[in-house]
Every structure is written in structure tokens, then in C-alpha cells.
Design a protein that fits this description.
With about 160 residues, this protein is of the alpha+beta class. The chain has one domain. Helices cover about 45% and strands about 20% of the residues. It has seven helices and six strands; from the N terminus they run H-E-E-H-E-E-H-H-H-E-E-H-H. The strands form three sheets. Strands 1-2 form a two-stranded antiparallel ribbon. The longest helix is centred in the first third of the chain and has 20 residues. The relative contact order is 0.12. InterPro entries: TAT_signal (IPR006311), YHS_dom (IPR007029). It comes from Neoroseomonas lacus. This is YHS domain-containing protein.
């Protein structure tokens, strides 16, 4: 199909307007949630699959990296990377890897990979071990409040 110069005068401005408007019409869940990533690396470089398979945080390695949600996720092995790539929602921490206690209080904060807990198959991270203990005093209440706060916090 050939376009004349005149038709191009209509197509270019139309596309310029349509593309930004189209992104506004995406469903709420279609936008990527923010990820707590220092220098672009999620969860301070910790292999999130290891929490589930090994029961402990394990440092990831750059050779086993995977890009997801605008961040680089590091893994201790190719097997862990591949598990994550196949089902990232299963292994990614709640609230984009921000401190679960902080999100329950209505703000975001960084995490210590050693302050963690898996609840009902979901990984939760906290600022440090002390904050993790405070979070653990009312896990159901903290999760409920964080779930209420996260849509607002993730949209900021």
C-alpha cells in the first residue's frame, strides 16, 4: 500500500496521540508493579527461588541473571533462573520486594534479604530482623493492611 505525503500528515499526528492514549486505557493490572531494585538489581542480588528450594537466602550470580518487571534478578544456578523465568509470580516477593511491614504501614522501605518469611506460598521480606519480628506478631493483619496499601503505593 502506498502512502501519499498528504496521508502521512494525518497518520503521524494520529499515531502520536493514539499511542499515549492507548497506554492510559490499559487495565490497572497491565502496568508493571514497581520492584525494589538497587542499581537495577532486585532483592539486593539474592536468589528468590532459593528461599523456596533451599529454605534460606542465597546470593545470586550475574551469570544466572533474568530480566523481569524492569529489574535484573540474580540466581545461584541456571535451574533456579529457569524456575523463576517459567513462573516469576510464584517466586517474586510480595510488594515488589519492598519491606512488608512498611507497606502495611503505608510506605515503602528497603529490605534485608535475611529478614524473610514464606506465608501461604508467598515470600515476604522486611527491613531487618527486628522489623521482621514486629511484622510476625500479626501476620494476617499486616498482610491484609499491606494488600490494601499496595495498589496506592505501587501506583506512585
Amino acid at each position: 500500500m502506498a502512502f501519499s505525503r498528504r496521508s502521512m500528515l494525518w497518520i503521524i499526528p494520529g499515531a502520536t496521540i493514539a499511542v499515549p492514549l492507548g497506554t492510559l486505557l490499559l487495565p490497572e493490572g497491565a502496568r508493571a508493579a514497581p520492584v525494589n531494585a538497587e542499581n537495577g538489581v532486585a532483592v539486593r542480588g539474592t536468589d528468590v527461588v532459593a528461599y523456596f528450594t533451599d529454605g534460606r537466602p542465597t546470593a545470586g550470580r550475574a551469570e544466572f541473571a533474568h530480566q523481569w518487571q524492569g529489574a535484573t534478578w540474580l540466581f545461584a544456578s541456571a535451574a533456579h533462573r529457569d524456575l523463576f523465568a517459567a513462573d516469576p509470580e510464584r517466586y517474586a516477593p510480595a510488594y515488589g520486594g519492598f519491606c512488608a511491614f512498611a507497606v502495611s504501614e503505608g510506605y515503602t522501605a528497603p529490605i534485608d534479604p535475611n529478614a524473610w518469611r514464606i506465608v501461604d506460598g508467598r515470600l515476604y521480606l522486611n527491613y531487618d530482623l527486628s522489623v521482621g519480628r514486629r511484622w510476625a506478631e500479626d501476620i494476617p493483619g499486616r498482610i491484609a493492611r499491606a494488600n490494601e496499601n499496595w495498589p496506592r503505593l505501587s501506583a506512585q
